[in-house]
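Q: What residues go here?
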């Protein structure tokens, strides 16, 4: 650590602006490394938005840790304030959840001034992700996300697969949930359309199936 940084006050009540800037810049750099590990071991995963979120989360957790310091009352106040935030996006892969916790841990370590903890966590988690995850998977999730809502007891997987077979190259179920207070079933597929097919044609083909309530298709964020 540079001498000018060591000479700056580290207590939250007397925190020097330059020291805070140093920690936030360090959090930015380490957040980029977290994102690089994520992209290198998952093949990109959810998309560009999630990768940006990992970087921002690392910086924000560092700032929050600085604000809290050793003040217990302030910690409880921030927990209450942050609890009003609600996220509607579903994390489809458990690895994504692990990397969110990874970013939070690194951000907290930087905010507390424990840079060696942040560095050690980066190294160990990075090696663990490579060893446990193996080679990055070949992207096969496709270019679009397809969400099909059907009535309970409506067209089964075989009927949906048959309807999809003429329009797509690859597909796999990545999520299923009930809708309309349990009266409908929503199934999510990432799909790749064949060269001659269009999203409108796929939606029209699925709407022709009995029991299909709605069809949504949107471009995946890369």
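A:
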């Amino acid at each position: 650590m540079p001498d000018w940084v060591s000479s700056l006050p580290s207590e939250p009540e007397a925190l020097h602006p330059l020291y805070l800037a140093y920690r936030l810049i360090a959090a930015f750099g380490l957040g980029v490394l977290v994102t690089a590990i994520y992209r290198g071991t998952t093949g990109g995963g959810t998309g560009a938005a999630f990768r940006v979120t990992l970087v921002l989360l690392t910086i924000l957790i560092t700032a929050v840790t600085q604000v809290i310091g050793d003040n217990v009352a302030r910690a409880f106040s921030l927990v209450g304030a942050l609890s009003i935030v609600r996220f509607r996006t579903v994390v489809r892969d458990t690895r994504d959840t692990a990397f969110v916790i990874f970013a939070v841990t690194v951000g907290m370590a930087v905010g507390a001034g424990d840079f060696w903890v942040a560095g050690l966590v980066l190294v160990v988690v990075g090696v663990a992700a490579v060893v446990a995850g193996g080679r990055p998977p070949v992207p096969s999730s496709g270019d679009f996300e397809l969400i099909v809502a059907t009535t309970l007891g409506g067209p089964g997987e075989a009927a949906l697969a048959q309807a999809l077979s003429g329009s797509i190259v690859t597909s796999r179920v990545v999520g299923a949930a009930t809708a309309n207070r349990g009266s409908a079933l929503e199934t999510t597929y990432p799909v790749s359309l064949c060269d001659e097919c269009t999203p409108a044609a796929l939606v029209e083909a699925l709407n022709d199936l009995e029991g299909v309530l709605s069809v949504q298709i949107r471009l995946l964020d890369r």
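A: Context that may help when evaluating the design: Residues 3-133 form one domain. The chain has eight helices and five strands.
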